[in-house]
Design goal:
213 residues; Arp2/3 complex 21 kDa subunit ARPC3; two-stranded antiparallel sheet; 2 strands; transmembrane helix; membrane; transmembrane
Length: 213
């Protein structure tokens, strides 16, 4: 039981140590744009997470925005933003079930990883076109990321023994498909605006790659 409780913390600590690579802090210190994007996305995402819908058995829903953050800052920086957002959520709102490590793994690591893997696969196998970038990398990836995050959190809560699977299915997972389109729409709109007006904010987008080709 002790090992089961400690395992998410061990995994989360290893992920954060890998995310904080040697060049991260010099980059954060020397790049004014990266500073604004890193702390700005942290503040905006924490604000959006605060608008959560609580349902039965202490479960709650909220938008994630990790897809947009991953496309903006890259995978490693998105993990650190996610860690900060989960920390702020834990301090000011709190978790009814699970702990910081479980929510970080489910609601930050999983959606960021799904987004980045999808981006890498699409980049190498599909035409490099702005429509492909926006529709698949932002819209579709955001919907799948939310689905995977909710399933991962449900499994962690079930593993912890706080709720049984019937409670999780009826009060949590059965509602998840209703949230996938709004999450996709929110991320798709955000990325579309950045592609049009601020392409330099997107670490994964380049005019030379997606427009000139």
């Amino acid at each position: 039981m002790l090992f089961a409780s400690a395992l998410p913390w061990i995994v989360a600590a290893c992920i954060i140590m890998l995310a904080v690579r040697k060049a991260f802090f010099p980059w954060l210190r020397n790049s004014r744009l990266f500073q604004h994007l890193f702390f700005g996305t942290t503040a905006v995402t924490a604000f959006i997470w605060s608008f959560h819908a609580s349902i039965a058995n202490g479960l709650a829903f909220h938008f994630l925005l990790l897809t947009s953050i991953t496309l903006m800052l890259g995978f490693r920086a998105a993990l650190l933003v996610g860690a900060l957002v989960v920390t702020l959520y834990a301090l000011f709102i709190g978790f009814e079930h699970g702990d910081w490590a479980q929510h970080f793994l489910a609601l930050a690591v999983i959606p960021a990883a799904v987004t980045y893997v999808a981006y890498a696969w699409i980049y190498h196998h599909l035409p490099r076109h702005p429509f492909v970038y926006i529709f698949l990398n932002a819209f579709i990836a955001a919907a799948i990321s939310l689905l995977m995050a909710q399933v991962a959190l449900a499994l962690l809560i079930f593993w912890q023994g706080a709720l049984n699977w019937e409670q999780l299915w009826q009060n949590y997972l059965s509602i998840t498909p209703l949230l996938m389109f709004p999450e996709a729409l929110l991320n798709g709109m955000a990325v579309t605006l950045m592609v049009v007006y601020r392409p330099n904010w997107l670490a994964t987008f380049s005019d030379n790659t997606y427009l000139n080709d």
